[in-house]
Amino acid sequence: MTAKINIFDRVLKVLARNYPQQFVQLALPDSRLEVIGTLENIELSIPEERVDFVHRVLDGEQEKILHLEFQTKHEGDVPERMFTYSALLTCQFKRPVLSAAIYLKYRKGPLPNAYEVTVGGQVVNRYTYPAVPLWKYADEIAAGRWPELAPLLVMLRHEPPDEGVLAQERVLILQEEDQQKRADLLACAVTMAARYFDKEFLWHFFREEVEIMREATFIEEWLEEKLEEGLRQGLEQGLEQGLERGLQQGLQQGLEQGLHRGALRQLLRVLEHRFGRVSPEVEAKLRMLDAVRLETLLDVALDVASLEEFLGALF
Questions:
Q1: Does domain 1-142 bear CATH number 3.40.1350?
Q2: Proportion of the chain in helix, strand, coil states, percent, rounded to 5
């Protein structure tokens, strides 16, 4: 059975992975924190929870943990969850934890940013954290201050997005010099815009960027396959029509393949870091597994004491 894909969550994690320093500046603008690493797929136990994104940062000479939690809109249990996550991350990593919640959907009133325990109306315990209303930065993003966040512009405007917003996004994204990151940004832009625009219109609008999007980390495999399929159809039905149709049909399939590729890459990286190079036979066995199974094995790889013990769980 294919795992359901959370498109919104996937896009934000791509952005947070590629541009952690920008989110540090948004969440803690007065700090001089330097991102020195990213911790993938962090799960907290008692109770078991998976947090959105965790980075290692340097505050002067002291290493700390930066936890970013992304929210489309505010939910009532967010303050309690932020408190719980901070406490569990502190316990797990034995380092000071900096947590921030980042919101995209407009809210008229202030965003709650504290978890409080009261007795008789008196606050006994209080935990606070930065709550970042990202929509307030929409003008700065559009003006080029935060070009890395351009794919989110369609969600940040008060009014319904139009073709002009997509044009702004495209101009900002194409300024990215890193080829891989530029491809990811374009793929994120198309994915987010699909919440508001017809997919046929989107693929037509971004048709000149299709070649760039081949390199996107979470659609790189399906795009080439569907491009070739679309081109074959185009010989009979017209190049443009066939290309767009092939791309549209491949969107869901490609995202699923990208999830599998990412999970496999992470698992192999952990195994090689802990136990040395994995044999071709073991790698071939892992390639046969689905993304859900690979993510489960990632937890096993972090816990076992040897490669032999991991192979025991695999076979």
A1: yes
A2: 55, 15, 25
